Amino acid sequence: MFFILCAVTAILLLLYIILNSNTIKNFWRRKTLVEKLPCVRKKIFLIGHLDFVGITKEEAFVKTREWTKDAPAVAHLITGPLMFVGLKGPYEIESAIGSMKHMEKSFLYKFLNRWLGEGLLTSTGLKWQKRRKMLTPAFHFTILQQFVSTFNKEVKRFVDEIETGNLNKPTNIVPFVSNFSLATIAGKSLSKPNIKETSMGSSEFMHTQESIDYKNAVSRISDVFYLRFSKPWTWIQPIFDLSSLRKIERQSLETLHQFTNFIIEKRSENFKTFDENLDDMCIRKKLPLLDMLINAKIKHGTINNDEIREEVDTFMFEGHDTTAMCLTYTTMLLACHKDIQEEVYQEIIHVLGPNLAQEPSHEDFTQMCLLDRCIKESLRLYPPVPTISRYTSEDINTKFGVIPEGVELLIHLYDLHRNPKFWPNPDVFDPSRHLPENCIGRHPFAYIPFSAGPRNCIGQKYAMLEIKAFFCGVLRKFRLEPVDTPDTLVMTQDVMLRSQNGVKVNFVLRN
Ligand code: HEM
């Protein structure tokens, strides 16, 4: 009897402690506050919103648009013990990402950890701060300027590829622009330009089987990411590790890491032979990214090989897939709007003259204002990164209620950019929206294809330069005619904004 009494007392005591523990208290507080926020989706008793389980990427794209279209600027979603809050209003998004308060990414980014490690995209805290400080000079104006010749060279290669065998017929441009953007980022841009072609993953190397394998592996690992997202039980690491997805992840990682290791090894081999020049540049702290990392390892020991690789993996992925998607949709939009395409062509000819051999310089791009507006408008309609995510480290007050600390934010850039409150006729391609006089009074967070705040895109200027160089080369040589249009695309919900069947256009030689 005494033992039974002791056991009951112990259980009651334990229950009392558990119910009063901060973790439990915080959970209930969080849940109560989240449930007070608006919601547009049907909830199942106990398990919450599981309406996304098992649906395909295409269905997920359509459903996400339906959910966000009907939702106010803030809406909640609960999956078991996890709470998500979706945002599509600029005021609320500014509160979430505009300051240093909520710097931590959502747990969803951890799905990428085996690939990207804790590189700039996924890291947090002091590690992120140090890396961001270290890498920012690699995107300084003087460094970017040097890449223009690499961009021009790769555009020429793209143009030749189209001219020999892909003229006057529907051509899916995705593999071509993907080649182009991968070659520019990995072929040269990570290291000092004007070094010998063989010094680091030369452009030739970038157009070989290895680069095709790399792109396929990126595509497979993106599929794994989506499938994992759509099967919440695989969010638990040991369950994921026992699933068939882990096998695909392992095989993809082998290819991805082999590729980036090769690039680093190649560059490291030749690094010493350029010591003199590099020392020169180091003094001014303006080294391209990979050189800067290798230099930090050799000279200061502040980074090791694994850490170099996580940054190279991060920049290769962020730097090639995003730009490729922007090139894809901008090409389609210009093909669909022949009058605007002609005006852009005239602007390019006005700046560069009719001689095709005249390569654009950094200064030339600054004069191409209409081209700039077209790219911005394409990034509004088709933001390559359609959703970003954060973890709230403290409460956020909104007019819809309190978003508590400890929840996952889903920030829907795609839906923000098509929010009719800020963008009249949101589905219409209209570059004049980005004329300075038309931007007056617009909320600064109504348009953020490169995100905003302290964790914004470090490569945005690089990307804009590369994209402008691409259209200078392509539009001087070809007229773009439409095959796919916004209505024929089957979009998918993915890490990147992709079209299921690619995007086709017709390239016609200009006379
Ligand atoms: C059109 C092209 C691009 C778009 C639309 C884009 C968009 C974005 C967005 C939305 C983010 C925030 C991601 C998040 O918070 O989860 C981001 C971050 C980042 N981007 Fe880009 N990006 C582009 C090109 C590039 C390029 C060319 C590079 C590198 C050369 C790059 C490197 C990065 C990195 C390293 C981060 C993480 C920054 C940090 O957390 O400190 N991006 N980008």
From TrEMBL:
Cofactor(s) the protein requires to work: heme
GO cellular component, one term: endoplasmic reticulum membrane
One Pfam entry name: p450
UniProt: heme binding residues: 457
CDD domains on file: CYP4
Matching PROSITE patterns: CYTOCHROME_P450
Superkingdom: Eukaryota
Main subcellular location: endoplasmic reticulum
Keyword Transmembrane: no
Cited InterPro entries: Cyt_P450 (IPR001128), Cyt_P450_CS (IPR017972), Cyt_P450_E_grp-I (IPR002401), Cyt_P450_sf (IPR036396), Cytochrome_P450_Monoox (IPR050196)
GO MF: heme binding; iron ion binding; monooxygenase activity; oxidoreductase activity, acting on paired donors, with incorporation or reduction of molecular oxygen
Membrane topology annotation: Peripheral membrane protein
Keyword terms, alphabetized: Endoplasmic reticulum, Heme, Iron, Membrane, Metal-binding, Microsome, Monooxygenase, Oxidoreductase
Cited function: May be involved in the metabolism of insect hormones and in the breakdown of synthetic insecticides.
Family statement: Belongs to the cytochrome P450 family.
PANTHER family assigned to the protein according to its UniProt record, in alphabetical order: CYTOCHROME P450 4C3-RELATED, CYTOCHROME P450 FAMILY 4
Protein name in the entry: Cytochrome P450
